[in-house]
Amino acid sequence: MAKIPRRRFLKQTAVTSIALAAxxxxxxxxxxxxxxxxxxxVVVDPSRQISTLDRRLFGSFLEQxxxxxxxxxYEPGSPRADSSGFRTDVTDEIRxxxxxxxxxxxxxxxxxxxxLDGVGPKRDRPRxxxxxxxxLETNQFGTNEFLTWCKLANTEPLMGMNFGTGSAxxxxxxxxxxxxxxxxxxxxxRRQHGYEAPHNVKYWCLGNEMDGPWQIGHMVAAEYxxxxxxxxxxxxxxxxxxxxxxxxxxxxxxxxxxxxxxQVLEECYNEVDAISLHRYFGNSEETGGDTTRYLAMNLAMxxxxxxxxxxxxxxxxxxxxxxxxxxSFDEWxxxxxxxxxxxxxxHRQEAPHLLEEPYNLEDALLVGGLINSLLxxxxxxxxxxxxxxxxxxxPLMTNENGVLRNTIYYPYAWALQSARGNVLSLVPEGPAYExxxxxxxxxxxxxxxxxxxxxxxxDVTATSDPEGKTAALFVLNRDLEKPRELVIDWxxxxxxxxxxxxxxxxxxxxxxxTFDTPKRVVPQSLEPPKAxxxxxxxxxxxxxxxxxxxx
Length: 551
What we know:
With about 550 residues, this protein is an alpha/beta fold. The chain has helices at about 5-20, 25-35, 90-95, 145-150, 170-180, 185-190, 220-240, 260-270, 290-295, 300-320, 360-375, 410-420, and strands at about 40-45, 50, 60, 100-105, 130, 135, 155-160, 205, 245, 275-280, 325-335, 380-385, 395-400, 400-405, 420-425, 430-435, 455, 460-465, 470-475, 485-490, 495-505, 525, 535-540, 545-550.
């Protein structure tokens, strides 16, 4: 039995004594048994809420990169494509998942993309060299194709804008092309292209990773902030209802991290609604290949979110502004194998195989933890995008015969399916382990990241939907050797039935799904306890679990 620190022991004893007095525990024998266990305890009270969940928290991302678009969602001539060239099997899969919003066209690609190249008659569209990924872009899939596909997939567009080679004037022109009904230069051009009704795109990203020296048009923070403010003012003249996202830092590995965000917001705070965050994780240099450290990396996402919130609120205070910015975590995922100078080079080919990450079980477990981190901060992170959706670092893969579900598909699909209503505030109490200073992250020039400190074995989040009379639990068990108990005390709304309990686990953390072996890593049923005010779940080692209950 692990030794319980005196301070925590006294706290647990006091809490349990109150519970005994109230009749919550069945006698002192039951109390002694629980004190000897390694259980994690949590009170779930629907009245204690973090936020009303914005479903855009579970968005995704498509870039004109590799096979994400061509042979991903769009493949004219395929027997699986409709008359417009859209892969119906992929569209059906994404529609059934319920992906709420999709960011497009990039990503690094957008900083050299001229949107006029991708509209109008397809025979007249130029084949160009994309300098971000060194690939040939045919422009057969452009703005109108993307917005048409969004309607087919029942998802909302999040449009990216070129702030590299593009100008504020052309950013405003794209808004006019998409959102004005008729009677202006750019709206009439859209109508000439066969789209009489405006697209009414609401969410827009003002550039991508402009702090990065790898980015086409890279600039310093103040310069970008002034450009973003100018573009935002022009765009809002055309459509005041727009939601505009400023380009934040590319991640904590940047030497300009946080200072970039501060300088940008000092220039454009009053003109935008949100700022972006990006982060990719891997079991590599940062973790030293140690899975116990790797499965704690979602806590680094928590820290990054909290740091950016602090910067936003600092600038708000300095400007004495009324509004409070929200965050758009519009690129996040596991990505560390399929990257580097060779992996990122398209060799001037059309739709080459790029960034096709072979996800395994431990990657899926971390993705579940990252979803938990987003839920915990859903009061400020109102939009997020799993990067990406198809073929390129994605939950879905395609070949000529169909669609494959990668391991990371399952925790993402569970969140889309079950997280509804309100995100609840939880304070789990249970065993933990320590994770010290992290190794050098990719591209960090030899620097190290702060340690994560105390890491709970069980990472728990919950949602409650009063309209649907349901609740959902999402639990990551980071213990690689032992099952763990989750003891729940329900307050305010007692579950009447466990409607679903699924777990992703296995003995081989490196197991992957392929087209030849598509079911090596798939959900299993978890035996749930009887529904009631007090419930104890037995969670397997190395697992991520989704539980839904009727309340």
